[in-house]
Specification:
This is Transcriptional regulator. This protein has helices spanning 2-26, 34-41, 45-51, 55-79, 86-102, 105-111, 115-120, 122-127, 136-146, 154-175, 181-196, 203-206. By secondary structure, the chain is mostly helical. Helix 1 (2-26) crosses helix 2 (34-41), helix 1 (2-26) packs across helix 4 (55-79) and helix 10 runs antiparallel to helix 11.
Length: 207
């Protein structure tokens, strides 16, 4: 009996997420009401408040899920490739994420320039189910240690990089401004490599 109740709750929450994603992808969140969401989800309005404070909380929760999926998929691809360099590993992951966003403009419009929100919103991550979230910050720190890089604060370094990627890719992919994403990538990745080189191990430490 208890398992049926839990399954019913899971299905209702999933319906809310699907309905909200569909609505937020088509129109600005300001024009979407909670009633719109629950009507599309086929659940009562009270059910909404069992899971979310308001529509902005729901949107941020969805962004965390979608961004986690993007980076987990990119990391899975990294594991399939024989890349043995810190900077190349980071650029590979970011390029994989960009390729996913290029092929899915609906998701990009939904995420907008909130890529870093999906990575760094700690409260939302703690609320996500284990199979819904991927901790990019932890993975980044593992790579930092693996290749013996040293940063005063690796989390801030990652934040700056994700902010740069998120801001650059939105208009570049959707509007080709200031240039198409394929032309922008070399500049973007050179800038990221320059940031990462700040923590590059010295020749002596590599011996």
């Amino acid at each position: 009996m208890k398992s049926k109740i839990l399954e019913n709750k899971r299905k209702k929450k999933e319906s809310l997420l699907k309905a909200a994603y569909s609505l937020f992808s088509k129109t600005d969140i300001k024009n979407v009401s909670i009633q719109d969401i629950v009507s599309n989800a086929g659940v009562a309005k009270g059910t909404f408040y069992l899971y979310f404070k308001d529509k902005y909380h729901l949107r941020d929760y969805l962004i965390s899920i979608e961004v986690s999926k993007l980076f987990k998929s990119a990391n899975d691809e990294l594991q399939k490739n024989d890349i043995r360099n810190f900077e190349d590993s980071v650029v590979f992951i970011l390029n994989n994420v960009l390729l996913s966003l290029e092929s899915n403009p609906v998701m990009l419009r939904f995420i907008k320039n909130n890529l870093s929100l999906g990575v760094f919103h700690e409260q939302l991550h703690s609320a996500l189910e284990n199979d819904e979230t991927y901790n990019l910050n932890d993975q980044f720190i593992k790579l930092v240690h693996k290749y013996h890089y040293t940063f005063k604060n690796p989390t801030i370094i990652l934040y700056l990089i994700i902010e740069m990627v998120g801001s650059a890719c939105y208009t570049s992919i959707l509007e080709s401004k200031p240039m198409p994403i394929q032309e922008l990538k070399p500049y973007l990745f050179d800038s990221i490599r320059a940031i990462l080189k700040q923590g590059e191990p010295s020749k002596e430490s590599e011996k």
